Amino acid sequence: MTVPITLACWDYDRTAALADGSVVPDGVDLTYLNLPVEETFFRMARHREFDAAEMSLSSYVVTLCRPDPPFVAVPVFPSRAFRHNGIYVNTASGITEPADLRGRVVGVPEYQMTAAVWIRGVLAEEHGVPVTSVHYRTGGLHAPGRVEKLPLADAAGLDIAPIGPADTLADLLVSGGIDALYCPRTPRPFAAGDPRVRRLWADPRPVEEDYFRRTGVFPIMHTVVLRRDVYERNRWLAGSLFTAFERARAATAERMREQAASAYLLPWLYAEVAHTEAVMGTDFWPYGAAANDTTLRAFCRYAHEQGLADRVLEPAELFAPETLESYVI
Predict the structure, then answer these.
(1) Least confident window among 152-161, 219-228, 306-315
(2) Structure confidence at residue 145 (pLDDT)
(3) Are the beta carbons of 115 and 138 closer than 8 angstroms?
(4) Are the beta carbons of 45 and 150 closer than 8 angstroms?
(5) Phi, psi (5° rounding) for residue 198?
(6) Taking 90 as the threshold, does the pLDDT of residue 264 lie above it?
(7) Would you call 126 helix, strand, or coil by DSSP?
(8) Are the beta carbons of 159 and 165 closer than 8 angstroms?
(9) Portion of the chain with pLDDT greater than 70, in percent
(10) Is the predicted pLDDT of residue 168 greater than 70, yes or no?
(11) Long-range contacts made by residues 228-237, C-beta under 8 angstroms, separation at least 24?
């Protein structure tokens, strides 16, 4: 007898074995829904549509600080990314270095989105740009009408307001309606080579590598959550899913190192793997709470400082306790 579970998650290489059925969680009849992350987040946060889902780490932390938290997470992280590369500026704004962002109007799709939490935290901690020194304008990047998935608590000292109902952040960045943009997706004007838009750091990779060497932080974007009612009925599901996600990740890591015939559209993949391991170590994308303690503590601190959590959460509070320890023979 298996438990039917519907999981909404994008088609990452590290989850491919779950999607194609070559890795099966013990005791689970898994339906894997390959959905864009924004759709998954919206449908899970607003309507609790899935038994389990990929979820913005920030949105999850926000729910934990509300009465009757609806989700419980397992410590797997399908999406991680350094975000220095996600700061874009209007070339006529006069912004040439991070400190120039103070006092400026900055667009962000949602104030509470994880990428923005990391960007604001790094700018404040590393570059002297206090979170309250920036005026935030929220809305859709390429289409009007985007709103916060979860209502925000009032945060003292913060200026957060939506853009116009017909506006988009990409258009405002080009026109100068906003000075800068914090965003995980590449704005179309930048991708098209529009000279009115550039990255704050023209070559962000060395900046990101230096950040990792100094801090040990590889920013986590998304975790995986179970609806709490699903978890409470069968608490073993948390451990079963954790193990399955780890097996899928390990299969991808092994395949990535196989050079006989490249499975990826990268001709110098071998060199990229070697460089990444030289900077970050061989296990550069770990799962589990303990292996990610430094990164999780940084995020929990930033979430509190930015008004998204009423206190600094401990990493262990984020995850099902069944996933935090294991038996020993």
Answers:
(1) 152-161
(2) 93
(3) no
(4) yes
(5) -150, 165
(6) no
(7) helix
(8) no
(9) 99
(10) yes
(11) 228/69, 228/70, 228/71, 228/72, 230/5, 230/51, 230/52, 231/72, 231/320, 234/3, 235/320, 235/322, 236/27, 236/322, 237/3, 237/5, 237/25, 237/27, 237/28, 237/52
